[in-house]
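Hey all, sorry for the wall of text incoming. These are the two entities for the joint prediction.
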Amino acid sequence: MARDRNVRNDRRARNAGLKQLPWRRVTNPYKPIEVLSEDQVEAIHNASLRILEDIGMDFMHPEAKEILAREGVTITPGTDRVKLDRGLILEKIKTVRPLIPLHARNPAHDLLLGGNNINFCTVASAPNASDLDGGRRPGNYADYQNFLRLAQSFNVIHMTGGYPVEPTDLPAATRHLDCLAAMVTLTDKAFHAYALGRTRILDALEIVRIGRGISKAQLAREPSLFTIVNTNSPLKLDGPMIEGLIEMARMNQIVVITPFTLSGAMAPASLAGALALQNAEALAGIAFTQMVNPGSPVMYGGFTSNVDMKSGAPAFGTPEYTRAALAGGQLTRRYGVPYRSSNASASNAVDAQAAYESEMSVWGATMGHCNMMMHGAGWMEGGLVASFEKFIVDVEILQGMAEFLQPLKIDEAELAHEAIREVGPGGHFFGVGHTLERYETAFYAPILSDWRNFENWQLAGGEDATQRANKIFKQVLADYQAPPLDPAQAEELAAFVARRKEEGGAPSN
Amino acid sequence: MARDRNVRNDRRARNAGLKQLPWRRVTNPYKPIEVLSEDQVEAIHNASLRILEDIGMDFMHPEAKEILAREGVTITPGTDRVKLDRGLILEKIKTVRPLIPLHARNPAHDLLLGGNNINFCTVASAPNASDLDGGRRPGNYADYQNFLRLAQSFNVIHMTGGYPVEPTDLPAATRHLDCLAAMVTLTDKAFHAYALGRTRILDALEIVRIGRGISKAQLAREPSLFTIVNTNSPLKLDGPMIEGLIEMARMNQIVVITPFTLSGAMAPASLAGALALQNAEALAGIAFTQMVNPGSPVMYGGFTSNVDMKSGAPAFGTPEYTRAALAGGQLTRRYGVPYRSSNASASNAVDAQAAYESEMSVWGATMGHCNMMMHGAGWMEGGLVASFEKFIVDVEILQGMAEFLQPLKIDEAELAHEAIREVGPGGHFFGVGHTLERYETAFYAPILSDWRNFENWQLAGGEDATQRANKIFKQVLADYQAPPLDPAQAEELAAFVARRKEEGGAPSN
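and here's what came out:
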C-alpha cells in the first residue's frame, strides 16, 4: 500500500512539466581531494585535543554538567567550564556510527548518511526571503511553505532545511508546531527540526512519529529526525542546544555538531587555528552525544570560513572555505564519523558571484565527501536570505554535480568503433544509429542553462539565468502537488498541534 | 639590466590601483581527480590505436604524406588517408618531453608546461567582442589591443591567447603582422600565434625572435612560441595546420594537438567514444610532430564536450565536459605529455550560468592537472564572444583557484593555541595580536566579490558582479602601462612588419 503510493508519487513527479533528474541516492565514486598530509591531520587532531584539555569548553546547562561529572570530568566550581581529557574524548567517540539511515515519511525517500553517500538539503534558517517580483522581505509562512513545495518538487533535493526561511509572522512559541505540521503535509522527504530547547524537540519527535505513522519504539529504533547543534564558537555550547541534543541523542535521532568557526572572528585568523578549534568543538560535542547515549547517531559539521579582514564581514565560497571543507572531510574520516558541509555564498544578488562562490563551496563539500550538504539550494548573503531564484540556480549546480558523480561507462558499445568507421574522416555523427540510440539519454539535460545561439536567445527576450530562474520556480510552484497523507494521520497531526497550541507551545529560551 | 627592468615592472604592477595576487608560477599540489580506472584508461588507449590502425586519418598535405611515407606508413593511393600502426605511434611518442619551458619576452614571465605546473591563458580566437557599454560587435583591432592590455595587467594571466578577439577590421593577409607586433609592444608575457599556413608561422617566429632580442639559434634552443593545432574531427588534419605544425616542430617550438571532439556532432554521442576519438587524433598528431623533429615540444589538448541533443547546439561546462577534462588528464599522464584544457561556457550573458559553467570547466581542467588552461578569461557563447566583463569574472575565478592551490600551512603559530587561550570561551579574535599580525595576509582578497551587507551594498548602488566587472576592466585599462621595450628592438620590429606588409603578407589559405 505504502509502496503503491510511492510509485504513484514518483510517476507524478516524473510527469510534471519540468524535465529533471530522477530521484536517486547520490554517491561519490571518486577519491576525496586531500589538502592535508597525514602528518597535518595529526597535528590538527593533537592541537584540538590540547585545546579541550588545556583551555576547556563551556557546557551551559546543569544537566550537561551532571552527565559530564558522571564521566569523571572536572568542572571548575561555579562555572560551566569543563576540561576534557584526550583519553576520555577518544574513548567516547569509539561508539560513533559510520553509516546512519535517515528515515523519511516516504520510504522511497529514506537517506543514508556516511560512506560515499552525498545528500543535498535546501537552504535553512534564513531570516529573509527574496525573489525578483517581491524583492527582499522578512521571512513569512507563505514563503516558508513555498520553499517546502520546491524541496518536494525537485528530485535532487533530499531534505528540507528546517525552516528554509524563518516564518517571522508566526508567534515564536507555536511557530515550530505550524511549521512541522506543514513539513509533514507538503513534503514526504526527511525531517529536519531545530534543537531550540527541550519542548520544541519533543514536539518535533512526536510530529515525526505521527507523520511516519509509527510507534514511539519504532521511532527510537529508526533515526527519522535530523538536527543541527551549533556550538557558540569559541568553545561554548548553550543551554537550549544542549537540551535539544540530549533529547535527540536519547531518542536515537541524528545530531550534527557544527561549530561556526569563522576565521578572524569567532576563530583564529589562520585556517590551521580555525580548523583546530572546529575540531575541538566538534569532538567535544560528538563525545558528549555518546555520553548521553552510546551509539546514538551523530555527524561532524564543518562550517569554517573566513571574514573580510578589512570590514569583518563574513565571506563564503572563498578559497579558504574550499580548503577548510576538504580538510574537514579528512578529519571526519580519521574518526569514522559522517560529515556535514554546506553550499554557501555571500553575494547580495543572484549573479555571477553567487554562482562562483556556490561552486567553490559545492566542490569543496563534494570532494571532501560530505554526506549532507546543508544550504544546498537557495542560500544567499551568508545565510541572511533564502532566494527563490538562487534555489533554481543551485538546483542546476547540484544536478550538474550529481551527474558529474555518475561513473563513465566504458565498453565496446560506448567506445563506438563501428560508428566512427561508419562516419569516417570528415563525416558527422548527427544522423547515425549510434547517436539516434542515445538521443534521449546521452547527456545531462539542464533545467536552467540556455544553450541557444545569441540571436535566438536575444529574439526570445535575452533573459539571463536569474530571470529564467524566476519563471522556473513559479512554474514549479504552479505544478506542485502535495504528496498523499493518510487521513487518519492528518487528523492525529491536527489534533496534536491544536492541543499543543492550547498548552501555549514552547517557552521562550 | 633586464633583471632591473623586470623588478621595476613588477613594482609598477603591484602599485597599480587594483589589489591583486602577485605574479607567480602556479602549481597544483593535490592529486588529480581520476574518473577512469586504470583498466578504463587502457580500454580508451586501445580503442584509439584501433581507430588509427583500422580506420585511419586524413593528413591533407603532400609534405605530411612524404614525412609519413619515410616512416613506412602506407597511404591509400590518390587520397590523404593514412593508417597508422600502433607500434609506430607508440615508438614515436617515446621522444615527447614531459616538461617544456616556454620563454617570454620578460624572463620573469617564463613558464613551465608539464608536471604539476598550471598556467592560465586568456580567451582566444573569438570572432566577436562584448561589453555592457558597446554591446556585442564584430572583433576589431581596438578591442584586440585592450584584451592584450588586460592580459598584461593581471598577474594571474600567464599568456595571451593569440587573438583574444579576431580583429576582423584588419586585412586578412597582414593581420597577423599587426597583431604580433602589438603583442610584442603591449605585453611581455609568453607568445601565442596561429598555425594558419607556413608564412604566418615563419613571420611569427621572426617577430618572437626580435621581441626577445635573441638569435635564431637561441630561439631554436628555447621554445618561445606556442600554437594550437586543431584536428578537423573526425580524423582529418588540414593543410594550413600541417604547414604550421611542421615549421613549429622544426624550430623546436610548442605545438598543442587539440582535437575538437564535440560528442554528438564531430564525435560519437558517448563520452567513451568521444574520448577514444580525441585520443586517436591527439596521438596521431603528437607522433607526427616527433616524426618531423624528435624531441620537439608538444602538448596533448583535450577539448571534448557535448552538444544539446535537441538542437545540436554545443554545450560547455557540462558534467560531461568536466569528466572529459579529468579523463583527458589521465590519458596524458599515461603518455607523459603535457596537457592543455580550457575554461569554457556556452552562456550568452555574463550571469550565473556563465559562472557555474566556467567553474565546472575550471575544476575539471585544474583537477585534471592541465598545464595550460586556454580561454581562461573572457570566453563566452562557446567561443563566439570575448567579453570584457567575463574576463574580470574569470580573473576572480582563476585567482580563487590559484589561491585554493596554495598548500595550507600547519605549524605551531598557525595552530594558534595561545591565541585561543587568550580569547577563551565566548571571546572574539578581532583585536588579538595573532589576528593583527595576519591582518594583511591571512585571507584571499577578491577583486570582484562584494561582501558588504545588503544595506550598504544597496546604498552604494546595488550593482551585481557584471556591473562591477564593467567598472573594473575600464579602470584597469585606464591604469595600464606598456612594458618597456628596447628602442632598437622596437625599430627592428617596425622595419620587419613594414617590409612584410610591402611583400603582401600571407597568402590566403
